[in-house]
Amino acid sequence: MSVSARNLLPCLALAASLLSTGCSSDDAAADSRAEVVANYAANLYEGYSDSVVDAEALKVDVSAFLVDPTDATLETARDSWLKSREHYMLTEGARFYDGPIDGTEENYEALLNSWPLDEAFIDYASKDGEVNEDVGIVNMPSEMPVITFDALVMKNGELDEPENVSVGYHAVEFLLWGQALNDVGPGERPATDYVIDGPSKNPDRRQIYLSVAVDGIVSNLSSVRYAWEPTATYRVDFEKEANLADSLTHIFTGLAKFSKGELGSQRLGAAYESKHRHDQHDCFSSQTLVDYERDARGIQAMYLGNYRDHDGPGLDELVKAADPALDADLKQKLQASIDAIVAIPKPFEDAIAGDDDSPGRQAIQAALTALSEQGDAFGAAAAAIGITITVDDPEE
Amino acid sequence: MIRKAGLFVCAMVAALGCSGGGAPLDKPLPPADPKSGGAATTLDDTSQAYGNSIRKLSDEQAGQFSLGHSVFSRAWVTAPATTDNLDGLGPLFNARACATCHSKDGRSAPFNSTGALLGMLFRLSIPGAGQHGGPNPDPVYGDQLRPFGILGVPGDGTPHVSYEEQPGSYGDGQAFSLQIPSYSIDGWNYGEPADGLMISPRTGPSVIGLGLLEAVTEDEIWENVHPPDADGVHGVPNYVWDAEQQAEVLGRFGWKANQPSTLQQTAGAFVGDIGITSSMFRNGTCTSTMTACNAATSGADPDFELSDQSWRSVGFYMRSLAVPARRAVDDQVALQGELLFTKFGCASCHRTTLHTGPADADALANQTIHPYTDLLLHDMGPELADNRPDYQASGSQWRTPPLWGLGLLQKVNQHSFMLHDARARGFAEAILWHGGEGATARENFRLAAASERDALLKFLESL
């Protein structure tokens, strides 16, 4: 938090100044904890709200594309998809504590962002240069006469998480870009896939699948946002005085596990080990590194209590009051991991291949290390304010 | 940790010194060892408690763990796919990912929210022994039911379970009820199975501490093999086929100890449950009459779908999952419960302490651990029998399942279903289902005072 914060309540400034002069009473500490938790929740609500707005914009652009499928409208829809990821990526640090995004029976995270995607379940697929145009729900009306979001989830996710690999952002990405068949670069799906009476089979069903998938993003994001509304039960409980310690535990757990286990170990580490070029979340659009940078920036912002141009009371203030050196160290690490991800040469599928001493793999290794150290630093920072978390590998 | 334990004692003595009421305790019981997995213990007691790696992994091991975790938790997809290291699902399958049945490295509930069978599969066999002395598979459906297929490939059939309540009562008259399951399969899509088909339902157990159990020496396991004791307890090892060594070896894993190693168990589950072939099991599971199944595209690699690197990594991942620490180690009621656990005879099979020998990770080697299993087969009577032999295991023998971490099941997986087919709703019912060699211990529990039963359950909850 900086002194020039715009939306600061006066009492917060007072609490912060009390803390910084070392005269804080227990009450002041409790107040500041309450404010930090409330600010986290408010920022997260904003993040999901923006994500819903983004998804609605995507829906508009996809609809325009479907009405008039041309190269130009396809390009607009693709741009809209890329933009629609930004605010959602900023919220991903709020996973792994059984919150509204991944802790309910619906598992919205799985419905929104599951990866890998079952391409041949959805649409035609190529193997060794041969296209099989008769596979996928799009091309098999007998498997699903009427394509609806619920039917897709039921059919592809017969059981439970992590079974749903037919819907969400990456399904839309696949339907806009198509399979990434080259070693490097995005998929090259032609706009004519959606032209009625065009060269591809079943454009009408492909249109419906894409619409339904976009609608699913809007609807599931809206459900997550709803849980974080100021008057929603989850939000109210999250901010209750009696639950502050638990809520702080959740917040730190999410940040630590997302840093080290998910973004580090799973998204970068597993790909580093396997060396598979398409072991990356945005394999169809080839924009993975953009997402990973947003993820890292989201983590940093959550620690600082920031969201967009709002700068509120953050975890950093609690940690700084308890142990200024730890706070400084963590801030340094948060920036270092962003810098390390930015330093990875794009695209990811190029960087991941090659020898371990290639610039790409060295840079990925450096980012991995930075994220791992950042995760551990979250554990130390939490401990400094009396919060115990286990920093380790998370579960999907 | 020793110092910490000392502090616990001091705190406890202090607390007792001030307390005015409650049950008198002449001599407080010393705190229990919290490190159930020795050095491979994690202090995490949250919903993620089963998913932590052991400490002191080398950089190379940490990398293997990362890759293994991704292979374990990601869904396999239909071939062909851009993600060509993760394609080749099915054509017939039970689940798309390991983590479907082993959610959060634990045990998924037997049913999902719509009532469909989730973390449960059905082993199939017909009378007689198969290759290498194992179960004799059905000629059409093989050795397990795969209810699902990729698009265009019908699943094997549809399993059903129904329950009938059977009332009972404790020694003090308090009532309980056990649910007796009955299983059936209909909608066979590839013709009728062979005559005499045997069905055995199995739930996926949690995958914590497997590296420790694999590192328990055979001598240590043989220590508990002896003629029947006064209660009729008589553990025996299973001997099963090891596909890597091409030899018969001691079985350690699975509900009937029918798997010799985590690697073989893993490769078996990949091909059987997900339809993913590997260098160990190169042949898919479509039999000759399954036309659509045989016609389906297989994964990117022409020889097999799970790369050796992925296979070894997921094996390492499972061997490197730490065991949650025992909690409430100084709780006097839970400690009393532990004494009763031994007194009732539970610990005769659920052996409290074992030791590991050499292992490829420091935290797994030469550890004193508390898994509460002897890794041996015991006859559990008609109560739990599936009447389906598996190598040396008879139709009523089961391997003693480990109990460590089970107290966190509710927190991690949001249910408390136990036993091989999840018929028990919590610890008490699981105990009450014991028969055969477990009958004496069960009766000791059933006839005990309510306070003693509660103490025993409190102990189990602390694991």
What's the quick description here?
The complex is a heterodimer of chains A (396) and B (463). Chain A has 396 residues and is mainly alpha-helical. Chain A has 15 helices and four strands.
Q: Report the biggest beta sheet of chain A as strand number plus sense, adding barrel if it closes.
A: 2 strands, antiparallel
Global geometry of chain A: globular
The tally of beta strands of chain B, per DSSP, is 17
The percent of residues in helical segments of chain B reads: 25-40%
CATH architecture call of chain A: Up-down Bundle
The CATH H-level homologous superfamily of chain A: M75 peptidase, HXXE motif
Chain-averaged pLDDT of chain A: 91
Helix-and-strand structural type of chain B: alpha+beta
Strand-residue fraction of chain A?
Answer: under 5%
Describe the structure.
The complex is a heterodimer of chains A (396) and B (463). Chain A is mainly alpha-helical and 396 residues long. Chain A has one domain: Up-down Bundle (A middle domain of Talin 1). Chain A is 60% helix and 3% strand. Chain A has helices at 10-20, 26-67, 71-90, 108-113, 119-122, 149-156, 169-177, 203-227, 233-239, 244-274, 288-304, 315-322, 324-342, 348-351, 359-384, and strands at 125-127, 130-132, 306-307, 310-311. Chain A has a two-stranded antiparallel sheet. Chain A has a two-stranded antiparallel sheet with strand order 3-4. The two termini of chain A are 32 Å apart. With 463 residues, chain B is α+β, with helices and mostly antiparallel strands. Chain B has one domain (34-461). In chain B, 27% of the residues lie in helices and 16% in strands. Chain B has helices at 2-18, 59-73, 98-101, 210-215, 218-222, 262-274, 291-295, 308-319, 332-343, 381-384, 409-413, 427-432, 439-446, 450-461; strands at residues 41-42, 92-93, 120-129, 135-136, 148-149, 158-169, 175-186, 198-203, 239-242, 247-250, 323-324, 354-355, 368-369, 377-379, 397-399, 417-418, 424-425. In chain B, the strands form eight sheets. In chain B, strands 4-3-8 form a three-stranded antiparallel beta sheet, with no helix packed on it. In chain B, strand 9 and strand 10 form a beta hairpin. In chain B, helix 6 (262-274) crosses helix 8 (308-319). The longest helix of chain B is centred in the N-terminal third of the chain and has 17 residues, at 2-18. The interface between A and B is large, with 52 and 57 residues.
